[in-house]
Structure formats: C-alpha cells, structure tokens
C-alpha cells in the first residue's frame, strides 16, 4: 500500500530519438492541487501525455488509489482521469453537446441519448464554469478563453478522481484566470478532487498549488511546497533568468519578481550586485 493517492514511478516516455524524459517519479495525496512548472521545451506536456495515456510509456508505472491505471480500458480510465488539453477541437458542435461528451465514458451499451442525470451534471458544471449563457452557441463561436472554460466544464462533467490540465489559464485574462483557479481550488477542497496542471505563471502556481514539480531538460529538477521549489537560486538555474523572491504579504506564499537588464546593470554599478539578505 502506498502513502500516495496518485503515484508515478520511474515514468519514461518521449518521441523516438527526438526527445525522451529521464525517469520521473513523484506522488500526490488525495486532494492535492499540484502544478508542473518549467521552461519551454522542458518536458511538461510530454510528462502529462505520458500520465494521460496519450503517449505510450517506455517504462514506469502510474498508480491511482492503489491501482495501476495503465492497463485499464479507455472507458474505465476516462471515468477516473479527465484531461483538459491546450488545444480544443472546436468542430461544428454546440457548447452543451461538447460538455455532455464528458458523460460518454458512463454510457451503457445501446444507450444513444444522455440520461437526466447526465444533463443535470453537465448543467451544474456549465453554470459553475460560467459558460452557461453560451451553451446554445457553436463551440467555434466562442473566444479562446471561453473554449477553455467549456473544456474544463467537459472534464468536470466526467466526474474524475484525477484532473490533468495543460495550461488551463493560458488564454484567459486575469479575471478569468483567477475565476478558473478559484473554481478548481473550490472543487479540490469540496470534492477532494486531485489536480495536476501545467502552469507557466510562477506566481499563480505559488498561490494556488500546494505541491510543485519543476522540470528542466526532460527531468524532474525539484519538487515540494512552493516555498521549497520557488527559491530564487533554483528559479535562476532552471530558467536562466535573474529573479527576486518575496512572500506575498497576505498569503505568505512566495512571489517571484523579474528584473530588467537595465535595472540589473544599475544595481551592479551602484552596489556590485543584488543583496539577497535584504
Ligand atoms: N510530437 C513531437 N515529436 C517530436 N518531438 C516533440 C514532439 N512534441 C514535443 N517534442 C519535443 O519535446 C520537447 C519537450 O516538449 P514539451 O511539449 O513536453 O515541452 P513543454 O515543457 O511542455 O514546453 P512548453 O512550455 O513550450 O509547452 C521539446 O524539445 C519539443 O520540441
């Protein structure tokens, strides 16, 4: 029996000889809201694709609630793990029908129409994500951010135990970023939904996630609480960029500040460098 609700052990996957993850291992507790961070091309999406089954593993195991989920049939896996990817296939389908597709893994053989329960669940998540007013529109008529909300509503309609998300806030303005992350945080608190998401914004990652996984060059570089992972020296090594970190005065979570080249040169000329002990 593992202490972890979700655990990957020495997971390897990639694209032939082009790019391959070095073995990645980590565990999450039920109800963790975990973020995968790291620079462009460090392997975040590849890791998520390996976990979601979109890329075959060359080695390693994935366990959810003490069961190896690699060998589950697609339908069974989809009842337990939902994925929100960056790019949404917005074919000619209404928002409501798109969200209802989240119930497909639960359809019985020869059940051609959704049940009342399917409709109730889909409507609940359309309301929660705020796309309810758009439900009759074609998905292709929505903005990038609204499509992202529809994709999240579909994934939640799947009622998964584990929600995987590839940059769920990438197309959203700050109001909707915070709205979506607040919603995810609420579901995570109320339903004990375990969430693993790729998130580029280090400040949002620090504020919302209780566990961070930092990738560099196809391998796991650091993992732990935001305070452990978002130390200035780790960020500088992984992102090759000078940063200053301070705690958010309200939440106590680390906040990361970038420094322009011009200011850095002025500080070097005046003080010889950044005083990290201030
Ligand atoms: N289908 C593919 N075939 C071959 N190589 C690929 C493929 N998809 C991605 N790669 C390569 O794998 C590496 C890791 O890509 P990945 O998408 O996992 O990075 P990422 O950390 O998610 O980056 P980003 O932050 O830019 O989305 C990159 O060098 C990329 O060029």
Structure characterization notes:
The structure is a single chain. By secondary structure, this protein is α/β, with parallel strands linked by helices. 35% of the residues lie in helices and 23% in strands. The chain is built from 10 helices and 14 strands. It has helices spanning 44-52, 74-80, 95-100, 116-129, 144-157, 174-191, 202-208, 226-229, 232-239, 261-271; strands spanning 6-12, 14-15, 19-20, 24-28, 33-37, 59-64, 67-68, 81-84, 162-166, 194-198, 211-216, 219-224, 243-247, 254-258. The strands form 4 sheets. Strands 8-9-10-5-11-12 form a 6-stranded mixed sheet, sandwiched between helices. A 4-stranded antiparallel sheet has the order 4-1-6-7, with helices on one face. It has a two-stranded antiparallel sheet with strand order 2-3. Strand 13 and strand 14 form a beta hairpin. The chain starts with 5 loop residues before the first strand and ends in a 7-residue tail after the last helix. The relative contact order is 0.15. The model has no long low-confidence stretch (mean pLDDT 90). Bound molecules: adenosine-5'-triphosphate. Adenosine-5'-triphosphate binds next to helix 1.
Low-pLDDT windows of residues: none
Q: In what range is the share of β-strand residues?
A: 15-25%
**Termini separation (Å)?**
46 Å
- General shape: globular
- Distinct small-molecule ligands in the complex: adenosine-5'-triphosphate
Strand order of the largest sheet: 8-9-10-5-11-12
Biggest sheet architecture: 6 strands, mixed
Rg, nearest Å: 20 Å
SS-based structural class? alpha/beta
- Total of DSSP H or I helical runs spanning 4+ residues: 10
SSE order, one letter for each helix or strand: EEEEEHEEHEHHHEHEHEEHHEEH
Helix content: 25-40%
Function: Part of the ABC transporter complex HmuTUV involved in hemin import. Responsible for energy coupling to the transport system.
Organism: Xiashengella succiniciproducens
Pfam families: ABC_tran
Keywords: ATP-binding, Nucleotide-binding, Translocase, Transport
